[in-house]
C-alpha cells in the first residue's frame, strides 16, 4: 500500500499525531477503533485541531514509518507492543484497515495482530520522544 503514489514502507500503526502521519482510525466512546478508508495523510491544520482538548492519540490512531531501534518498543528484532497485546488474545475478525499491507504488526504476527489492533490505545504519557 502506498499513500498517493509514494513508496510503501513498513508502518508503525501506533504513531504520534504529527504532520505527514496517516490517520488510521478514530476511537469511539468505548475505546474501540473505527478504521478510516482510504488512508489519509494529516496536515498541520489537522494536528492543530486535534491538539485541542484531549490528547490526540487518545482519540485517533496514526501510522508513520517504523523506526525500529529508534523506538523503545523495539526488542532488537520485533515490536513488543503487538507481542504483548497478543498475550491477551482476541475474539474478533480482522477489521478493514487501510495500512495492512505495510503494517509492522501485520508483517510480524499476521491476522492475529489485526484481531487485537482495535483494542490498542497509545499511552502518550509514558512515551519518550520516539515512534
Description:
A hairpin with a 5-residue loop joins strand 2 (22-27) and strand 3. Helices cover 20% and strands 20% of the residues. It has a 4-stranded antiparallel sheet with strand order 1-4-2-3, with no helix packed on it. The protein is α+β, with helices and mostly antiparallel strands and 131 residues long. The longest helix has 7 residues, at 44-50. The protein starts with 10 loop residues before the first strand and ends in a 15-residue tail after the last helix. Residues 1-5 have low confidence and may be disordered.
What's a quick, concise take on this entry?
This protein has 4 helices and 4 strands; from the N terminus they run βββαβααα. The chain is of the alpha+beta class.
Mean pLDDT: 86
Q: In sequence order, what are the helices and strands, one letter per element?
A: EEEHEHHH
Structural class: alpha+beta
Largest sheet: 4 strands, antiparallel
Structural Rg:
14 Å
What low-confidence regions span 5 or more consecutive residues with pLDDT below 50?
A: 1-5
Provide the β-strand percentage band: 15-25%
Give me the number of helical elements. Answer: 4
* Terminal CA distance: 20 Å
**Total strands:** 4
Shape: globular
Instruction: Provide the spatial order of strands within the biggest beta sheet.
Output: 1-4-2-3
Helical amount: 10-25%
Amino acid at each position: 500500500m502506498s499513500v498517493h503514489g509514494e513508496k510503501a514502507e513498513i508502518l508503525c500503526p501506533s504513531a504520534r499525531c504529527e504532520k505527514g502521519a496517516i490517520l488510521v482510525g478514530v476511537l469511539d466512546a468505548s475505546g474501540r477503533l473505527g478504521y478510516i478508508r482510504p488512508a489519509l495523510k494529516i496536515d498541520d491544520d489537522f494536528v492543530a485541531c486535534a491538539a485541542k482538548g484531549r490528547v490526540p492519540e487518545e482519540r485517533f490512531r496514526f501510522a508513520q514509518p517504523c523506526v525500529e531501534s529508534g523506538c523503545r518498543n523495539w526488542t532488537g528484532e520485533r515490536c513488543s507492543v503487538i507481542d504483548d497485546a497478543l498475550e491477551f488474545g482476541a475474539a474478533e475478525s480482522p477489521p478493514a484497515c487501510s495500512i495492512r499491507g505495510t503494517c509492522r504488526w501485520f508483517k510480524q504476527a499476521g491476522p492475529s495482530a489485526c484481531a487485537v489492533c482495535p483494542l490498542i490505545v497509545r499511552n502518550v504519557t509514558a512515551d519518550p520522544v520516539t515512534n
